[in-house]
Every structure is written in structure tokens, then in C-alpha cells.
Design a protein that fits this description.
Shape: globular
Pfam family, one: DUF4180
Number of domains: 1
Distance between the termini: 17 Å
Structural class: alpha/beta
Oligomer: single chain
Number of helices: 5
Largest sheet: 4 strands, parallel
Helix content: 40-55%
Order of helices and strands: EHEHEHHEH
InterPro entries: DUF4180 (IPR025438)
Strand content: 5-15%
Domain DUF4180: 3-108
Length: 114
């Protein structure tokens, strides 16, 4: 059993709901409870909260009971929008969606779940 499925940092961004569902299916098959996705592999409009892309993706993970960790530097997105900054802050207080700097931070944080 793998607790965290780490999505390969190389390749095209997640672009369709099918890509997200395939990733969730892979998590289920390995019995992962979390999936880490490099910030660079997110679809183009992910941090434009008004378009619904982030909501659609994160909702799929929540529906299947799998945590989602966005790994990488998202400070530029947070700095450019107070809504995004507030959303990231609130997500990081929860147990479903996290924004972490790197795999080390994810591993440490994941280890605190009980």
C-alpha cells in the first residue's frame, strides 16, 4: 500500500476531467490516500477561481475521499490575488487539499495525520 501517489513532474498538464479521474483511479488501485500533483502540471486556469477549474478538480478528489496536495511554488499566484491567497490559506488548514513547497513538506505534513 502506498499512502501518497506522486504524479510524475514531467508530462502535459492535467487538462480534462478524464485525466483527473484516471489519476484518482490510479490512486485507488494503489490504495493511496493522497495524490501529489506538481503545480506545473495543473491546467492553465487552475488559479483563476472564478472559472471553476480548481473547484471541479478538487471536488473530484473530495468525492472519492482522496487528499490532493499541490506541490511547488504557488507564491506568485497567491501574491497576485487576495482570493487565491485566502483560499490557499484555508485549504492548508484542512485535511483534503494542501499546497506544499516540496515533497519533504508533504511527507512531514502527511505524517501528522491520525
Amino acid at each position: 500500500m502506498t499512502d501518497i501517489l506522486r504524479y510524475d513532474p514531467d508530462g502535459r498538464p492535467l487538462s480534462e476531467v478524464r485525466d483527473v479521474l484516471d489519476l484518482i483511479g490510479e490512486a485507488w488501485s494503489t490504495r493511496a490516500t493522497w495524490v501529489s500533483v506538481p503545480a506545473d502540471r495543473l491546467p492553465g486556469g487552475f488559479f483563476t477561481l472564478s472559472n471553476g477549474v480548481a473547484g471541479e478538480i478538487t471536488q473530484k478528489f473530495a468525492q472519492y475521499g482522496i487528499g490532493l496536495a499541490i506541490v511547488g511554488d504557488v507564491s506568485g499566484h497567491a501574491a497576485s490575488s487576495s482570493s487565491v491567497r485566502d483560499w490557499i490559506y484555508e485549504c492548508n488548514r484542512g485535511r483534503q487539499l494542501w499546497f506544499v513547497r516540496d515533497d519533504e513538506e508533504l511527507t512531514t505534513r502527511h505524517g501528522t495525520l491520525g
